[in-house]
User: Fold these one by one.
Assistant:
Number 1:
Amino acid sequence: MTATQEAVAPAAGQDLPVVGHWVDGVRSAGTSSRTADVFDPATGQVTKRVALASREDSDAVIAAAARAWPAWRDMSLARRTQVLFAFRELLNARKPELAALITSEHGKVLEDALGEVSRGQEIVELACGLSHLLKGSTSENASTNVDVSSLRQPLGVVGIISPFNFPAMVPMWFFPVAIAAGNAVVLKPSEKDPSAAIWMGELWKEAGLPDGIFNVLQGDKSAVDALLESPKVKAISFVGSTPIARYVYENATRHGKRVQALGGAKNHMVVLPDADLDLAADAAVNGGFGSAGERCMAISALVVIDSIADELIGKITERMSGLRTGDGRRGCDMGPLVTGAHRDKVTGYIQEGVDAGAELVVDGRGGQVDGAPEGFWVSPTLFDKVTPEMSVYTQEIFGPVLSVLRVGTFDDALDMINSNPYGNGTAIFTNDGGAARRFQHEVEVGMIGINVPVPVPVGYYSFGGWKNSLFGDTHAHGTEGFHFYTRGKVITTRWLDPSHGGINLGFPQND
Ligand code: NAD
């Protein structure tokens, strides 16, 4: 039996399997009778249910992590490294299995799901270098015959709360680093696609991670609140929409925790007149419609200097006509949206754009698809002449809707981005080094692409936005990730000799 099949257990008296929790190295059904539906978005069918933890279930999972933690904290760096390497090898060998599981619950096309796993794997590879990343420092003779050293120690139990759009990669932004640094993890995945987390739990067990160090708690607000409030949980890494990120940040800090809460986004791509318009059109289509626009780094606002707008829109429209929307298992370019409710929200925004007077160049509602009619479809959609007060611009649509905003100058483009409340990612397309350099210097956004539409940083740099796209001050993975999951100690040492004798009540001076 593969890990995928083991991830779900049949529900007593029901025909659909229920995805449960992963605690202490085994699956657990928990005690709650509450469940939520899990869909196959390409068929529109409910294929599973997911357990929604009671407070008692949540407390039990957190307690298991707390029990397991001290032994892992004390395990040598050499042994921890071996476990991380084993996890990396298993993940690399079996990622098509995980990708298929993601496609079946999220809907993104298989190739994109595989890409997500590979980007997550980068962080596992970073974490394999834990012995180097956790090194402290020493200063000999900081004062005469006095040495000072620093070291970093794990926090204990840490909570990770993740969104639906990257059920493998986003958790992997955090848990490889948290575990490598010597913490115990409770992951609360999105209830929309809960199985990837269980699959990864089983992989950790196979890799030799001690039971109780990686746990999965399935649930909704109740499970999140349990993590935010439990005194056993020392830090929270959250990724999701901005209102929930703000809620998590405020509540978890009130309970004395360290928090990084990554929120929503509205990512602008600026195209200057000197850019190669064919390459810019390719990038706009890839960045706007990849994963059906359900990426926090998706391009949703295309800010174009008016003189080239008609030509660029022509090239984009031409490319859009070749895109195939359909079932992610059939080699299509773009899959469905995650749920029927989300599809309705996205089509609602499209109608609002029309009503507000934007020009609907390509309407993705009711387009042809290669999939079951009940699937949650919206095909790629393009608006022109969008203005900043329209809801298609002010709201994070999180669907395959690209809006062109025409501006007169580079400064107008920069002002528009800097006036937006979000600051996750942005891109500029130009061959003018001076303009690009000014853009990277002045734009108030955390991740910037220069002729790169989706500038997700590599694992050894850190991921995170500015303004309403991140609450807290530490970004994910890279050295910032190791810093987040550890706390520092500084030790001042002297080995006594007669020169240290004598009474002196003054503040210690170094000499
Ligand atoms: P969401 O905010 O609805 O859910 C995120 C997590 O919060 C889930 O685990 C969910 O169960 C939980 N949650 C939902 N409602 C809650 C509530 N009332 N109280 C407590 N917890 C609650 O987000 P989503 O729809 O799953 O994901 C899409 C959003 O995530 C988009 O806004 C996207 O931009 C954002 N996102 C941001 C980044 C980033 O790096 N900044 C990355 C990926 C996704």
Number 2:
Amino acid sequence: MIIGIHDLDVATAHYVLDLDEMAQALGVDPAKYEKGLGQDEFSVPAPDEDIVTMAAEAASRVLSRNDRTRIRSVLFATETGIDQSKAAGVFVHGLLGLPHTVRTVEFKQACYSGTAALQAAVNQVARYPEDQVLVITADVARYAVGTGGEPTQGAGAVAMLVAADPNLVVIEPGSGVYTSDVNDFWRPNDSSTPFVEGKLSLDAYMDANVGAWDDLVAQRGLSITDIDRFMHHQPFTKMARKAHSRLAEHVGLPLGDDLIEQSMVYNRRIGNSYTASLYFGLVAQLHAGDALEGRRLGLFSYGSGSVAEFFTAVVQEGYSDYLHPENVTQSLDRRVPLTFEEYRDLHANYIGESDNVETPIVTAAPFRFTGITDRVRQYEARS
Ligand code: COA
């Protein structure tokens, strides 16, 4: 039996900030962002958007094309959970009107947890081949203003339907995994922005990349030349380039940038979306119009702290018939540009408390975060 990603789709936020606008306001050379970090712009949520509204939009696009009664689990991966107890996926389950006969849970480990959710989904289908599992990765990457991370913010969601005999990619058995207890990025319960040791995080990421690769080789006996395209986690796209050259150095073979180039197209515009970032890379690679049938993709997932996984996926025959690049284009192009001052106002007015609030109607998306009543988050689905 083959198991993998049967369908997928995306969503992002209402606003966009052009990094040239940020560079000008902060007196930074725009080339630092464009070339040094490899980023052009980033998505910024409106006050009536969050991980639930983006996740529900991405998932509703997937469900509109599939039989929702076959879904037995909703696995929601995020770094930016909205409640310490209730899984964000339960709100999504309600908004989408999924059957009660579904297991719903949240996964956490910085940017890595989407991959744990994906593997759990594959394992569930291996045991119960009729089941389908909805895996959702959604995050709002929000760093403190004035920090090195500020230009690497972003927001987005990728929803994936995992099933037997998938239309898009087969997730192959056997991953390389790597855990190392390192304090490169963390977010205490009383902080809405992370604490980051920037340079340490680059090293921790690259150590995990080669560590997970070595484990993949030990598990599977794969060679680097067995991989046709690489997707490395992209907190900013230059990070993927750094990892790729370090991996090339490690295996002692040249690995051209052409093997990663197409995976960075969407992330350059969305910014960091933590758990969703690797999967925006996968979507971009699949949308690139390359004939990838039968090709093996190598995906590297990293979450600070740190946990990493290198795994492989084989692209299915006819996969391009099941892609919807127009949804990404629509999500990106409908974003409303912000001035730097407007962006900073939104950043400052982030709703991080659970006091009663009614949010203004801003987003044009199909789901809204309408506010908080008696400490309960409220959402609405527009028809
Ligand atoms: N033109 C072109 N490139 C420029 C430039 C210019 N005018 N000015 C700087 N650069 C380059 C630098 O050389 C550097 O590239 P390099 O790393 O390949 O040498 C890059 O731009 C970034 O510059 P740097 O001074 O290192 O940036 P920073 O200290 O402000 O912040 C991070 C960089 C990554 C530490 C910061 O964005 C961060 O903390 N991000 C969040 C954590 C993160 O995402 N970690 C990744 C692993 S999870």
